[in-house]
Amino acid sequence: MEDQIILIDKPAGISSFGVVAKVRVRLRDDFGHKVKVGHTGTLDPFATGLLILLSGKMTKKSSEFLKLDKVYEATLKLGYTSTTGDPEGEITKLDNENIDIIEIKNILKNFIGKIKQTPPRYSAIKINGQRAYKLARKGQKFEIPSRQVEIYSIEILEYNYPELKIKTHVSSGTYIRALAEDIGKKLGTGAYLTALRRTKIGKYSIKDAKVL
After folding, report:
1. Pick from 122, 120, 114, 135: which is nearest to 180 by CA?
2. What residues are annotated to the active site?
3. Which of 103, 109, 137, 139 is least surrounded by CB atoms within 10 angstroms?
4. pTM of the full structure
């Protein structure tokens, strides 16, 4: 069937557009002709996990999937910052000591509910018609307006300083890189993402996804 919802478990090191290209080739081989394929929200190249792709006539429904909430497992490295909020940026070590887990739990409570978040400079958001990450790479100065997002829950999965692994359920439009950086600022330690895995989008689960 050409009109499909395709769940993919994206590996690290490939862009979401790269995943789309691979699936497009496979469907062309299966059906013997070109099949339209699109994604419903990207993951950064370093991130892994659930991507929802749509093919054929289903691509017309992409806007419905963009609005769905999401669940992520994220690993933060405290005591460091990154220019991009992830391992691909320039990493700076800060002079900090171990933070007690009780203090971390108290700080995380501040992020539950509706919050204002400023998307990362290295993001695909358009500023005057250009992608923010392209402007950032050119060293240009620009402002990204903050937006309201909602954090439904944050759970600590593991903590062994400087690494903090959390599971978070968030609304559409939430940037986990920005959340990690904001948590680091609140703790006074700095933080960036070393790993990110998306496990759910709405009712769709990584358990049902196919590996490339």
Report:
1. 120
2. 44
3. 139
4. 0.91
